[in-house]
Design brief:
The chain is mainly alpha-helical and 1982 residues long. It has 62 helices and 18 strands. The C terminus is likely disordered.
Amino acid sequence: MAEILCEWLNEEVKLSRSVVPGSFSEEFSTGYLLGELLHKYGLQDDFNQFSQSRIASAKLNNFSRLEPTLHLLGVQFDKNVAQDIMTGQHGTATKLLYELYIALEKMKKAKLSGVAMEAMRPAATAKLKSIESALFQERLKTLIPRQTDLQLQQISEHFEIKSRAVEDKIARLHITEQQKVQKLQEEQRAQDIEKHRIGRRRQNEIMARIQAAVIQVPKPPPNRTIKSIETKMFLKKKREAEDTYKEMKMFEKSMARNASAVHSQVTDSDTQELQTQKLEATTLETTTQTASELLNVYSDDEYIKKIRKRLEEDKFAREQREKRRRKMLTGQLVTHEAQEEVYREEQLIYRLMRQSQQERRIAVELMHIRHEKEVLRQNRIFREKQYEERRLKEFQEALDREAALAKQEKMDNQEQIINEREHHEKIIRERAQARYKKHYSICWEVINQIIDLSTKVGEYRILTNNKIPLKLMGDWKEFFFNGEPIYEQASIQSLPDEPSPEQLVELNKMNLLDEKDYGEYKSMTGEWCPAEENSENKPPPNNNILGHVLRRLMDIFYPPKPTPSPPVFPPFPVKGCILGKAFSGKTTCVKFIEKVCNIQILSVDTLVQEAIQAFLKNEVKSEHNVISEEAESSGEQDQLSVRAQLGSASQKILKKGKSIPDEILIDILLEAIKQTPPEKGWILDGFPMTVKQAKLFDKAYTGFDPEAEDANPGKLSLVTDPRVPDKLPVTSPALDVAILLDISDTIVLERAADSNSKLKSSQTAQENNQNSDAEIPEKNLVSVRDKVLQRMTGFLNTWPELDKWFSIHQNILVKVNAETQESLVCETVKEIIMEEIAKSQDRRSVQETSTRKKSLSVKHEKRLPSIGVAPPPIEPGSEKWIYVDEPLPKEIPHFLVPYWEMVENSYINSIKTIFRCLRDEHHSVIYYLADIRKKFQNYLKCPDLKQELVSQWQSDFNSIADDLREDEETKAELHQRVTDLRDNLWDICDNRREEAEQERTDIMNDGWLLDQRGIAMNNFFSLMQVEVDRFQDTKRILHDYYRAMEGKIPTPDSQDFTRIPLLDIINVEQKENQRQSRRIPLVSSKLFAPGIDTTKSKSKGTALKSAKDEHFENVVATFKKDKKLITDTWQAAVTAISNMVTAEVQFKEMEEEVESLQLYLREDVTLSGKATGKGAKSASKRKGTSSAASEVSTIPLTPEQLKKQELANKIKQEYFSALTNEELATKSRLELIKEKALAFVEDLIMKAEEAYKDMEKWLGSRFLAEMSSVEKLIEVARHFIESSSKINYKITLEETDFFITSDVEVTPDPIPSPQVPQIETSGSGTLTISQLTTLHKQFLQVAPKAIRALKQFKSTSNSSSKREGGDRGKEKKDLELWRARRNRQFPKIWLTKYSWLKYDDEKGIMFCAPCRKHNVDLGEKIHNFCSGTDDFKLEFINTHQSSEAHAWATCMEAASTASPDAASAEQMLKSMNSITLGRVENIFRTCHAIAKSGRPFTDLDWMCKLDDMKGVDIGSVFRNDKSARKFIHFIAEVERRALKDKLEKCKFFSVISDGVTDSILKAAAVVYVRFAYKGKVHCQIVGVQPVHKRDASSIKNAIEEALQINLQLSLANQDWSRKLVGFGSDGTDAMVRENSGVVKLLREIQPCVQSVHCFAHRLQLAYKGALRNIHLYNILSNVLRNMYYFYHNSPLNKNNLKATYAAIKLRPAIPSRIGGSQWLPRLQTALQILLKGYPAIVLHLSKIERDSRASNQQKVKRLLHFLLKMEIVKFSHFLLDVINVLNILSRVTLDHNSSVADIFATVQSTLETLHMYQTRAGPKERLMETIQHFHGYQLVGNGNISAIRTKLLSNLVKRLHDCFCDASQDVLRATTIGSFKLWPEKMKEEFGEKEVSILTKHYAVILEAASVKLEEVETEWSMLKLELYNRFQNIQTLTWDSVNSNYLKKYPNILTLVDLILTLPAGSAETERGQSNETHHDAFSL
């Protein structure tokens, strides 16, 4: 019933929401759908007041409105039914719907409407029903709780949940405390029990001693009294325990009853009160009171009191229960102790009495034992005989079993090798694919950059007039080599706080160019390389003194961190490692080396085991052992050795299931190396395994980390200290040699399989003794194989990096071929190691020899006697110079180091900023010059008034009466008017030239060049200022440093910093504002500006000429002034530097004089002693300071003073040398800056001058062109004056062009009346029928050669036109002479030169004979050669000869006069000129394209118009659909002939046919033929033939007629029937019916015909069948369809969606249509659009949903409801994965080149992919596996689609299998050898032999008719297969056409069979494509 209702609601009624059987209760609970149902039947008029909300008021409103309508229908409906529906009671909604269904069907059958039913009801009943409806609404209100009540209930439930959680938490805490107390009690009890146990043990020992000393007494009878007492006590305790347990149970039950009673009392009272209040009254006061009582009942205080009371009761109950339990346990303990006491007494008595009984028992047992021994001996003898016989038998059986197992094992081993090899090759292919993808992505990026670079170069060639600056190209190359985009990604003028990624890229590019420019400037290379003429200006050398000073200050300010001392190891003879894959022979070689060479072998696994054993044995450390960091963690291991501590750490890690870290492995290795004797070398076995381990080992062994960065912050960038190395010394690697045992993966797998077989055999032998372990060997073998594959994969992953480390970084790698014999590999490794030992010994001997020589040389130098010749002085800063390193005050480094860092940063940043400005200026210059060029060209194209004058003159000229035109005075007047017109036009040209020259002058004088020169010079002046600032700062640092070493206080620099003035290029208004804040001196730029006066004088020409001359003169003067300014500025900077050095030297000398004077005065005071008085003082004053200096030398100095003086001299020398070096370096850089500034300014001026010269050139050429056009106009005008005729067509003089427009007539032209010959004329420029017939016959003969003939004729016509051009050049000179004489005689010699030219002596005119004959008049501009002309000029004849009219006339003449047998199309084409030939070729190509694409013939019209708009010359004829039909008909004829020729050459062909229905053809059959020739497959259409009936006979006759009509091919002919091998169709009954189908009729002609049902059609049926019953697919299809119509039918919605896409920056994608014949690609496209545009679609729909004014709000809500479901989104991803796979298969089936074998291969891969999707998710579905949201939107539902996935995939797999069940015939299955994709990767001898045999047997008759030797086919197959596998590695990439090209002559028979296989059709998809393009019959041929 539910399904019937669903079908009724969804299909018939079509509710707004689709319902399913299980959703009735939920969907109809609001009443909205019920109202919609009644509204669709016209019963619910107030449906617009219904609401979809689920709140109580909405439900009350809906059901109140439903009640009258339902009663009107007679449906049972009351308040209880409404309440059940609203609360979702199961079955109520279904029952109501069923009653509605019956009532509505009755109403529908009675054809009653709602109004009629209301009218039929009695008035009394209607009134009663209205009263009942009102009462129903009130009663329903009482039943439905209000929304506020529901909210209060939710709040109370929330508080109840919280209180319950608090109660649970308190209970848990209480239980935890009880458990703690109980645990303490149990511990105490355990201690007590242990004490009792110890006491009992001691008591038992005492009792044992007593028993040994006491005589045994017979055991007395048991004491009944004691036992009875014990029994009573036990029973009493048991009863007490049971009573206690019952009391506890009763207490718990009473507590539970109390709690439930309280809860039920509250609930019942509330319910009773509510019911009473509802029954008594429905007033507002009662409702308010009820709400308040509810609030009081569920208030927080009362609830908390109840909780507290319950907790207190629980606490009291637990205490009582605990007391009773303790009491019971105490009683049990007392009882137990009493029982133990009684038991001990009984045991004591029993032991005392047992001694004598045991002795008697022992004697008896001894006799029994003797007898049993004898019996056992006899049995053993008999059993040994049986065992011997059984062993012999089992031994023989074991031998037989071992033989069988060995044979089976060998087979399994080979199979395992093959499987593992295939797996490994698969891994190799995957790796190769990954490498290919990586390389492809790299190449893609490089190609994109190359394209960007090329386009950038092209753009700048346009801007710079094909001259790209080298600097710009260098910057682009820098971007290209660094992988940066060349084009600007974003603007960085105003950067935000968080730049975008594009802005970060631009900043990176800017920094890259800054670093490049700064590097070139610093090293004086590249752009800053000195010119060749200034080769002496080399890069300045490094200032070593300054570098030493700064390095010393840096070391003091940034003290270097102490480096740890490297570990010390003895010099071993050899240090190496042996690496390789698993089973490469490492262990074997290692054992051999250890045995032969006495070398220690270190295996990491063995060393780890030894370390763990050392820890387990508690190995104690020795005195020299050092505890490692890993072993220091525990305090208990202080006394263990280092190896034991490392073993402890390793064991802990291994117990956790983790691998040992590399650091611990390295420590274990180093500890083992320390224990190795120095005389023995060591070899590492299989270590290191990763590059990380290699680097860690090298670092730990040598103590040097090559990858460690220098952590010292004190780095110098401007100068270096030569005595401090930049890099640490390179140390030798830890290993001397690394040996790789190279082995292929195949050998590894074979060796692994051999080892597995050996392991199996050994374990099988063990099974004979241990049968219980039978299953262990198999598991071990599987694990061994897995480990081998895992180790191989790990080695392949890690080896590339290790190879690079050992071969490139350390250069110690030696590879050994390990695939040879074991002994040879071991010997090779031994030779390598011995050679390395010899090398190490040689190195040590060389080091010892060099050390000995150094010591001897040192001793010899010490013994050499001193020679009196003084050595040359040592230059400061040289290698032998000893720097002054006196102590410095602490304040000096802390001041000078930050100061120098600030100087360096300021210097580097300033230079980079200046270079950035120079680059910007360079770009601005390029763009400005390009802009002014473009603007000037546009200015030259401005319109003028010449056309108005010409039009006025033409109208005046034509207004003259015809009878006055012959008058000489009139002609004179007209000539004068023409002269006036010429003068006026010349004036306009002169004015335009003057205006253009003025515009050019304004551009030159706009001040741009002056500003640019000023900006450029300011940049270079700033660069000079930076160099001067650097020198001043360096001088300051040196000055303070050396004064501090002398112990003097640094003096402040009295001299201000030198400032180089800049050019003042600021506007006048800005100068006043910046004058106060100016710190840099400025020089006015007007002092150097050229004095050009641009004022206009009265004579414009003279002024412009003088301005132009002055400009060129000022250019030279300006450059000289710029050069002088730059030179002066440079000279000022150099002079300032020299002055600073001189001032420093003078200051130093003056300071020394002052010091010497002070010293002299102090000595003078000491020598004079006590001499006093004015006389002595005056005497000393009179001597003066001049004599003091001379007398200083006479004063003797102490040794300390001499030493101090020597130190001061050395400091002075070093200081001045540093200053001199810095001065030379600064001057060198300033000289380079000056050269670059001059070159930059010169280049700027040169570029500007080139632009100005180009403007002048354009101006002059335009003026000359305008004057030439005026001359032509005047010449034409005078011609018309002399000929006394009007100018019928409009004369146009536009800019530099002059022409006569033939489309615009000024005055009506009289109709000529020539004598037309009595022949059929062509209309609209089209040839006649007879001419077209002739042309058609010629095209049929040479149509394939037409294009070639056109091209040949073009070349000949071009050459002839060139020759004619030369003739015209000669004749032009003669015409100029004839024009003066005005000779009107016709030269007869022209008739011999031009065969088409005729002369009429009577009329005195010349005319064209073909044009007059065929009446070809296309409206020539001046002279009409069809009617004739009397203007005998050679240029008019040449113009007509090259015209289109003459060409068509010549063509028609050739077609009409030539016979079909004698003439040819080539002769006709040769009669055309190159222009007409090009037009014919263009139309020919257009018609061919129309036929090829299947377009209608009428498209030729708009395609020709499109060619006209593109500027393609196609002429004015052959532009209609009739011409297109003719052309295409001729082309199709040629194509059919070519198809027939191909079929005659090939040996087999197949026919493909399908039905087609058209409005014109009614029913027809489309026929294709498929054939293969030399491995290439062809599939071409034959034609379309009408079918009179839809039976098999009519279709077969239509096929035969199509072949006969179009190809003249008859299947009845035996020659053609023997070639027919296959028939492809769409699988209808008329085609493939076994008894009466088309296939049956064709097999009567040829029995071997193989029928193929179209695979594409089968697949389409399979897809639809698999998806038909999928519920989610149906829902998703409805969603996609509704979305399409929602946007397709509403342009507003579509535009809003596009705006939403733009707002979130996504590419717009409007939902597309699904369904139709191409439903699979359409569904794929729709799903892709849905998933890509999901955020925009959902956002747009959400906006519409929130808009209350939207009319389609309900539809949008339904769409959103489904789009936000997790199941729908996940199913969409899954379905897209499946459809992507199916679409690939569909494309293969639709490809006409696909064979049956190709389709089978694709089906196989499709099935494998679908099987894979059954176990794991696809690529799209994996995106939604774990997330709960999609594109930021939270999804609803659990998203479980596993059942639907399984069902859909199972259906697809099953239907795909069933789809090809009938195609899996022997013959079709045998055709799989025709696809190389299905060939095995490795050679298999049996492959294809069965298939070849089947095909040969089935097609024996056809193959024999094709001259195939059947007995040689199989032999050729084997040989061809073997040769292909040997020659080609990847057999699956081959094609049969390439195989035919190489092996056709060698193996012709098998390749002919392959052609037959390829000929078989895969389906009729090509015919379906032909049906879709069916526009005309002839087009099918293309």
